[in-house]
UniProtKB/TrEMBL annotation:
Name the UniProt record assigns to this protein: T9SS type A sorting domain-containing protein
Domain of life: Bacteria
GO biological-process terms attached to the record: proteolysis
Entry keyword set: Hydrolase, Protease, Serine protease
Length: 745
């Protein structure tokens, strides 16, 4: 008798397993009756998994084309497909409703508002029909809201929808209404829909954390993209069909502080079309073919702060960090024609910084900005704000002045702040068009460019605010897609009014976050991955969606996340010699300016007419003038000068030209007489036939003597050093030059 009872129990158990129903979770989006449609394969699967191939389509209201979906199911092999509008408790509680529904082996729940399903069907005959049909081996399917109600627990949305930024602000938000007293067909998972389209992965993890806080139970998460289905068979193995991904989340803990999630141990597997996953064993059953593992070097020790906000009045956390820095100088890089750079200049000066403003539109010219580049090398604090991203990226990568900044940002002692969308260029790659067209990711049109590589990955700022709602899919998918495509390590999503601080401590690169929201760090821990391959339209476009065998997602707020080991940059900076400026020549005297510290010497070069430049003089680094005594009438003379310090040379100054014209009338030349020459008596006589202005210079260009309106002059030169001097006389028509040798004992 005992053996007979055991045999009966085994038979009943086997029958129950065999009768286990199937689920089709559809993330939303419209079906298409086309040969290439994403919905053909999963909807056919639902029909094929049923016994009588009859589909009951359940909703709250009639669609504008009520027969379209029934006809579509019939085209895929359904024997029959019928709409049921069940929108009152009387209908839901009717035994006739139960009996009618049980004639169909596929229940398909349309989208809308899952709170309507819950409040109307909970405890009703419709609920009984769902459970009985599932236990009899039927197929329970739903799209959007119709999918959301299937899991246990599930999000009932009784208090309205929860947006991603609200989830990042508070995982205990009153809008998170989770229930476990409904149909409960998928245990130990919470599901969410329209996943990448509406940027909902912060929301799903907030659901998981909220449930953990309320019950101390850890449940997984399943996020299904729109136009994507997850078909789960009787063995609890799910297969993906469609244009997007199914995201499977799990966590060993889900900690929060004051409602903000702080958790480093959340894993995600992203499944693409025809990938399968065992929900019981929590294992992907197939292998991706692309190598998506990251190429990681040691991190630099420079400190990088990124903010989701541009305006100074939204960046108190940034100003707080600045106030703690023991630095004297700061550079603000901004090209916006607004007051934003002045706001930060004033804020920095109030913190006792000496501030230099550099526009990212500064000329792509090397020789004229050596002093500026030296200032960059001597500065340790940099702010980037208000720049057009294309301009800023080109400036830092291609402009010789910007390249010095990019190098300096890698130095151990540097602290850099990237504010608002300017933070994007701090990564190795940045997505250029995530905010230009809401459908760039959907149609596979996301574009990426090289960043400056301070962060081994990508950055998206203002990722989930109400102002970027239309771009949630671009923002979310670009992180995962970019990590896979370029084998990057990290993706950072940050909201307005929040910051992320990346710094070095004990040879480790660490990250912390602050502000109004938790920030999200996606870490590529994959060994393999792939990319979406199902077309979204007749033109064959494919979404920018990636799949990974494993990833890690961290939520950071006033907590520490280790990114990796750090390595000193060992960058050595040598100041350039600035080019001399304001080179001029007057009456054979050449003068110039040099506003930087004195070099070893200056080299003055001269060219006559179309000849080659030759060295005219080497001038001591303390001097700023020289004289050219060898000028011939009507020659075009060109001059240039450079600074030299050992093996380091500056650029040449701008070239100045000078044409010598002593007189236009040969008859009146040689009217200036200087004698004796050489002068050995200590007295030098100057004579002319009219009133002249006289000047005497030494060969370094120093003015020794000058006088005006004199026809005849005797000068005492007994105190001058022996050497060659230049006497210049001029009147209204004539310039005469005479070299004189003075010999004194």
């Amino acid at each position: 008798m005992k053996k007979l009872l055991i045999y009966i129990v085994l038979i009943l158990t086997i029958n129950k397993l065999n009768a286990q129903g199937k689920l089709m979770l559809v993330g939303g989006g419209g079906e298409r009756d086309e040969s290439w449609s994403w919905s053909n394969q999963p909807y056919s699967w639902a029909v094929d998994q049923s016994t009588n191939k009859k589909v009951g389509i359940i909703s709250f209201s009639e669609s504008s084309d009520p027969e379209w979906l029934p006809d579509y199911f019939k085209s895929l092999g359904a024997v029959d497909a019928v709409n049921f509008i069940i929108n009152t408790t009387d209908l839901a509680n009717s035994i006739d409703t139960y009996n009618t529904l049980m004639e169909y082996d596929v229940f398909f729940f349309k989208g809308g508002d899952q709170s309507n399903y819950y409040l109307t069907y909970q405890g009703s005959e419709v609920q009984n029909a769902i459970l009985d049909k599932f236990n009899a081996g039927g197929v329970i399917a739903g799209t959007s809201a119709g999918m959301a109600m299937i899991s246990n627990p599930f999000y009932s949305a009784e208090n309205g929808t929860l947006y991603p930024d609200q989830a990042l602000a508070n995982v205990l938000d009153s809008k998170i209404t989770l229930k476990n007293d409904f149909i409960n067909l998928l245990d130990d998972y919470i599901v969410d829909t329209h996943f990448v389209e509406r940027g909902r992965f912060p929301r799903l993890i907030a659901f998981m954390a909220n449930w953990y806080e309320a019950t101390n139970e850890l449940v997984g998460g399943i996020g299904v993209d729109d136009r994507t289905a997850f078909c789960i068979d009787e063995n609890n193995v799910g297969t993906v069909y469609g244009t997007g991904a199914v995201n499977i989340f799990s966590a060993s803990s889900l900690n929060q502080t004051d409602g903000k999630l702080n958790e480093k141990d959340i894993t995600v597997t992203q499944l693409l079309h025809e990938s399968s996953y065992d929900l019981t064993a929590k294992t992907q059953l197939d292998t991706y073919t692309e190598n998506t593992s990251p190429n990681v070097d040691s991190y630099k020790r420079s400190r990088v702060i990124i903010s989701g906000s541009s305006n100074a009045n939204e960046n108190n956390s940034v100003l707080d960090i600045l106030s703690t820095l023991e630095k004297a100088d700061a550079i603000v890089v901004s090209e916006m024609e607004s007051s934003i750079e002045e706001e930060y200049k004033n804020a920095l000066e109030s913190l006792n910084f000496e501030v230099t403003l550099i526009p990212s539109t500064v000329a792509d010219e090397e020789c004229g900005y050596a002093s500026l580049r030296n200032k960059i090398r001597e500065t340790d604090v940099f702010l980037f704000v208000g720049n057009d991203l294309e301009v800023l990226s080109q400036f830092l990568l291609d402009n010789p002045n910007g390249q010095v900044i990019a190098d300096k940002l890698l130095a151990d002692e540097t602290v850099s702040f990237f504010l608002g969308d300017n933070a994007k260029v701090a990564g190795q790659k940045w997505v250029t068009n995530n905010l230009s067209d809401p459908f760039n990711s959907y149609f596979g049109d996301l574009e990426f460019k090289d960043g400056i590589g301070l962060i081994n990955g990508l950055v998206i700022t203002d990722a989930y605010s109400s102002s970027t709602t239309d771009f949630y899919e671009n923002n979310t998918s670009s992180i995962f897609y970019g990590l896979a495509k370029y084998n990057l390590q990290h993706g950072i999503l940050i909201n307005r009014n929040s910051i992320v601080d990346i710094f070095n401590e004990n040879d480790e690169t660490l990250l912390t976050g602050g502000g109004n929201y938790s920030s999200i760090v996606v870490t590529n821990t994959s060994t393999s991955g792939d990319f979406a391959n199902q077309q979204v339209n007749a033109g064959g476009n494919v979404r920018n969606v990636a799949g990974f065998d494993q990833m890690k997602v961290s939520f950071v707020h006033n907590s520490i996340l280790k990114l990796g080991n750090s390595l000193s940059s060992d960058i050595q900076f040598t100041n350039e010699l600035a080019r001399p400026t304001n080179l001029t020549i007057t009456d054979n005297v050449i003068t110039f300016d040099y506003d930087y510290q004195n070099p070893e010497k200056f080299i003055l070069e001269k060219k006559i007419d179309e000849g080659e430049f030759e060295i005219l003089a080497e001038i001591s680094g303390e001097m700023r003038s020289a004289i050219d005594t060898d000028l011939i009438n009507n020659q075009l003379i060109s001059y240039r000068i450079k600074a030299v310090d050992g093996s380091i040379e500056s650029c040449y100054s701008e070239i100045v030209q000078y044409r010598v014209i002593t007189s236009t009338d040969n008859a009146i030349q040689n009217n200036l007489v200087v004698y004796p020459n050489p002068c050995t008596t200590g007295r030098l006589k100057l004579e002319s036939n009219s009133h002249w202005t006289y000047s005497i210079y030494d060969l370094l260009g120093n003015l020794i003597y000058s006088n005006t309106d004199i026809k005849e002059q005797v000068m005492d030169v007994s105190t001058l050093k022996s050497g060659t001097y230049l006497v210049i006389g001029r009147n209204e028509k004539i310039i005469e030059r005479k070299k004189v040798i003075i010999l004194n004992d």
